[in-house]
Design goal:
Elements (H helix, E strand, L loop, with lengths): L1 H29 L5 H11 L6 H10 L6 H9 L9 E2 L5 E2 H36 L4 H15 L2 H14 L21 H10 L1 H27 L2 H8 L4 H13 L1 H5 L1 H19 L4 H10 L3 H29 L7
Antiparallel strand pairs: 1-2
Length: 331
């Protein structure tokens, strides 16, 4: 009952937090001078076209940009309960909910797989490095971790493209689908094509998280292995595998779980840049286009969705941490 009460309390606290975040997101989008119509007029002029002030005023009235900022915010936020997130002015007046329905699932799948990739590789390597400290392989793995942290995700994506195309002649680099499957319905052939395109973005997104998590895991394990209860378990004659798995790893992994709230924004930020480089149909390129065109409804909604995902991720991390560590109590 204590855990259920904690979850309900956290959810109730999250509601006003999301409302506050929505206000902040809308204010941030409004900070650049001008609006979508201003950016649209500048784009038309840069292409040598003629702009009509009457047309611009008509568009500003149509999108409600002639209203005060607080009226624009209220029109935007009151549509959320109905699933109305406004109109993406920069993408042929497409409803924002349609764009999210198309791209958000792929974004979540990509980020979740990148997270599993980072955790699944980093934890075993971190444990091995800690249990074989100061060996040649430990130094080598630590060196690789520093290299992985220092290489930005978008640069790694460029390197993957270069080596895959020029050295391995790969046909599955860039985009998430081959050209014939981009607009096709979901079939087994499309699923297989999607899976063939996944390794490059997952590696590009997950390497930095893998390297950072490996270093943290190694440090945690080294601290835990020096604790007295570990020495007591060994003195009782327990096998080393049991000591590591049931006594050391169970405690050393807790800081990794608690840092999920930190990993999520890092992965999301890396995914946005990698998606632009690899031309992936996720919310990354969509968000960039919305910002450059000052499409406030689209950019604000994406910011809000990301914020909600971070809140949910932190809540799930706290629940998993309480499940893995019985010492934690929520009163």
């Amino acid at each position: 009952m204590g855990m259920l009460t904690y979850i309900i309390r956290r959810i109730l606290i999250s509601i006003p937090m999301i409302i506050l975040i929505s206000i902040i997101c809308f204010i941030i989008i409004q900070l650049p001078p001008g609006d979508y119509i201003t950016a649209y007029a500048a784009l038309v002029e840069s292409r040598g076209g003629m702009r009509s002030q009457e047309l611009l005023d008509l568009l500003r009235t149509r999108y409600g940009l002639d209203k005060p900022v607080y009226i624009q915010y209220l029109r935007w936020i009151t549509g959320f309960p109905r699933g109305d997130f406004g109109i993406a002015m920069s993408i042929n007046d497409t409803p924002v909910v349609d764009l999210l329905r198309e791209r958000l699932p792929l974004t979540l799948i990509l980020n979740f797989l990148a997270f599993l990739f980072a955790i699944g590789i980093a934890i075993p390597i971190g444990v091995y490095s800690a249990t074989h400290k100061y060996t040649l392989l430990d130094y080598f793995l630590t060196f690789l971790a520093f290299i992985g942290i220092s290489i930005p995700g978008f640069l790694l994506a460029l390197l993957i493209i270069f080596f895959s195309v020029f050295y391995f002649d790969s046909q599955y680099i860039g985009m998430l689908f081959s050209s014939e499957f981009v607009a096709a319905p979901w079939t087994w052939a499309r699923v297989l094509d999607f899976l063939k395109h996944l390794p490059a973005p997952i590696v590009a997104i997950g390497v930095a998280g893998t390297s950072n998590t490996m270093r943290i895991m190694r440090g945690n394990m080294l601290d835990i292995l020096n604790q007295q209860y570990i020495q007591t378990a060994r003195a009782k004659g327990l096998k080393e595998k049991i000591v590591l798995r049931k006594h050391a790893l169970r405690i050393a992994i807790n800081p990794i779980i608690s840092r999920v709230g930190v990993y999520l924004p890092e992965i999301l930020a890396t995914e946005m840049l990698v998606s632009i480089v690899l031309n992936l149909r996720t919310i990354g390129p969509l968000f960039y286009q919305a910002l450059t065109s000052q499409d406030m409804y689209l950019a604000g909604t994406i910011l809000l969705v990301i914020s909600v995902l971070l809140i949910v991720g932190n809540l799930l991390a706290d629940i998993v941490l309480a499940w893995t560590d019985p010492r934690i109590r929520y009163d």
